[in-house]
Design brief:
Layout (H helix, E strand, L loop, with lengths): L5 E7 L4 E7 L5 E6 L3 H9 L5 E6 L6 H8 L3 E5 L15 H13 L11 H33 L12 H11 L6 H33 L4 H7 L7 H11 L9 H5 L4 E6 L2 E7 L5 H12 L9 H7 L4 H23 L4 H20 L4
Parallel strand pairs: 1-4, 4-5
Antiparallel strand pairs: 1-2, 2-3, 6-7
InterPro entries: Transp_IS110-like_N, Transpos_IS110, Transposase_20
Pfam families: DEDD_Tnp_IS110, Transposase_20
Protein name: IS110 family transposase
């Protein structure tokens, strides 16, 4: 329940902050425009009748303001923008009105706060997201190179692409077939870009593996890695993106990452649509990719056993149980002739629950 006397809403931007405060005793509304300086914001807040509570929307400015206010003894809520209630007929949007709207919702305790990561967790999350950006850049660079060759009728037929053999073919056979100097220059530029991104990805992978081996996330990473398809990189990304696993349970974690179907029900009619795709896109992609690994026959091979050796016995048993369950679910879907993409999303939703059960397990 809201117990502070003054509720303050901040509409935070890179170069300005619109602020609005509501005095719960007198009903007086105060508005002003501030600079993004934490000291300037704090000086204005201290002028309000105390105690005070502050709310602002989560966004690109991060959590520095929230940490500064919390350290100063001010309760601060970082609000999920997608969960804000707005009047249906409101057609005027300004920074000042947004700040006042936040203050009113905070006063009514009608805001949904996001989880605030620690400084170390945010740093690890930045590293994981840098690796994800590098992966996407590498994929696009490879597509550009392969489509350049395709436009000139040069296609690789000797196996999987982007292997050592494919790399030798690119340098020894594909490049000499480009006849004009301009086209050869374009090939060299795209090929050099691919090599540069591959080196950057290897460096980021090495840094993530080192951090996963010795950090506050190590225990969670080792337990979650007992599941098939969840290697060190995936487990570390799940650990730092989700943060506090205890705020979920086996059912709600699937909804948090947008893997549950949308629903339109009224009275006796119930209609379900495609998955909601809300929440963390990166986590959802990792779970969907990991779910494909459970389609093949389950065998605890050397790579999986090497990860098991680092985990507690209870986590190994739990991971083995989850691997059996998820593969049997795949078999059931295939027997019912379910589309593989639909079945895989269902497996990913259940895989999220198994990851949660391992993450919250005590060593």
């Amino acid at each position: 329940m809201f117990t502070e006397r003054t509720s303050i809403g901040l509409d935070v931007h890179a170069r300005s902050v619109a602020a609005a405060a509501i005095d719960g005793v007198t009903g007086e509304v105060s508005r002003t425009r501030l600079t993004p300086s934490y000291e300037h914001i704090m000086d204005w807040i201290t002028q309000m009748p105390g105690p005070v509570a502050v709310a602002y929307e989560a966004g690109p400015t991060g959590f520095g303001l929230c940490r500064a206010l919390t350290n100063a003894g001010v309760r601060c809520e970082v609000v999920a923008p997608s969960k804000l209630q707005r009047p249906a007929g409101d057609r005027v949007k300004t920074d000042s009105r947004d700040a006042l709207h936040l203050a009113r919702l905070l006063r009514l305790d009608e805001v949904t706060s996001v989880s605030i990561p620690s400084v170390n967790q945010e740093a690890a999350r930045d590293l994981v997201r840098a690796r994800e950006d590098c992966r996407g850049d590498l994929m696009r660079a490879r597509h550009r190179l392969s489509k350049l060759l395709l436009r000139h009728g040069i296609v690789y037929h000797a196996g999987a692409a982007w292997t050592d053999a494919h790399d030798r073919w690119l340098r020894a056979q594909a490049a000499p077939q480009l006849l004009t100097p301009a086209t050869r220059m374009a090939f060299d530029s795209d090929y050099e870009h691919v090599l540069m991104l591959q080196g950057r990805r290897r460096a980021l992978d090495s840094a993530i593996e080192d951090m996963a081996a010795d950090s506050e996330f190590t225990a969670v990473v080792r337990r979650v890695s007992c599941l098939r398809g969840v290697g060190t990189l995936t487990a570390f990304a799940l650990a730092v993106e989700l943060g506090d696993w205890n705020r979920f349970n086996g059912n709600t974690i699937g909804a948090f990452v947008g893997l549950v179907p949308a629903e339109f029900s009224s009275g006796s009619t119930r209609a379900q649509g495609p998955i909601t795709k809300t929440g963390n896109t990166h986590v959802r992609r990792l779970l969907v990719e990991a779910a494909w690994h459970h389609r093949s026959k389950y065998q605890a091979r050397a790579v999986l056993r090497s990860r098991w050796e680092l985990a507690p016995a209870a986590a190994r048993a739990r991971g083995h149980e989850g691997n059996l369950r998820l593969h049997n679910r795949w078999v059931g879907f295939l027997a019912r002739r379910k589309r593989s993409t639909v079945a895989n999303v269902a497996i990913a939703r259940e895989l999220a629950g198994w990851c949660w059960s391992l993450a919250v397990m005590e060593d």
